[in-house]
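sorry to bug you again but im stuck and you know this stuff better than me. theres a chain ive been looking at and ive put its sequence and its fold in token form underneath. id like you to explain what the token line says about the fold, in plain words if possible. anything you notice is useful, everything is just below.
___
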Amino acid sequence: MLAQEPVIRLSVFAAVLVAMALLEHAFPRRPQRLSWRRWPANFGLVAISSLLLRLVAPAGAVGVALWAEARGLGLMPALGVPFWVAAPVAVVLLDLLIYFQHRVFHAVPVLWRLHRVHHADPELDASSGLRFHPVEILLSLAIKAVAVVALGAPAESVLIFEVLLNATALFNHANLAVPAWLDRPLRQVLVTPDMHRVHHSEIRAETDSDFGFCLSCWDRIFGTYVAEPSKGQLGMTIGVEGFRADAEQRIDRLLLQPMKPSGR
């Protein structure tokens, strides 16, 4: 499985992206006005980030896990935790790490400027799940690498986590109308589009809520869960004030946006 890591990740990514695009078209949650004008920059950012990751850390988090595993590094090997326990525990703990990382990127001004590129998308669809500044992507990899070594996470669990993270990011950013009868039980486990959309509200209290990417339990446990936006799913305003204009969606503007004042 690990030898096929790039193929597995790319295949799942492409399949989920196509599925979300088709479902968004068939069952849209909100009317979209700017979609085609946002896509070049959103997809451009992920292309730049992917290239940088290949140049800086071609083996990625899975490679770090293999390196640590070969040296017996990390808490779980030190404790003698069997693989069948270590693998699922590592996936859950890495998801918890992403939850707290997300909160930190909102709380620290210089990190918020990087993360704001993601929030400044004036509409949400699956492509929004790819819209992150390349520097944020590199920082995220560094944080994950430290956690993977500290835990001694099995490489297989790191691959599963990375696939889940990418797939759920596409899903929970999708402009997809999930029926209420399905959304209610689904969000007891996973972050759904309606749940995550609250996080992209222009209202600060709602922006600083619903930080989870995959598992929805962390927001409930740590008191950051907001079920619905105050203005409703159709009435809420998405994005960051001052960054909604068409010109702000160009890739050059997005790459330079962290140099601009806060925008909170």
Q: What stands out?
A: The mean pLDDT is 94. The CA atoms of residues 198 and 229 lie 5 Å apart. The radius of gyration is 18 Å. The chain has 14 helices and no strands.
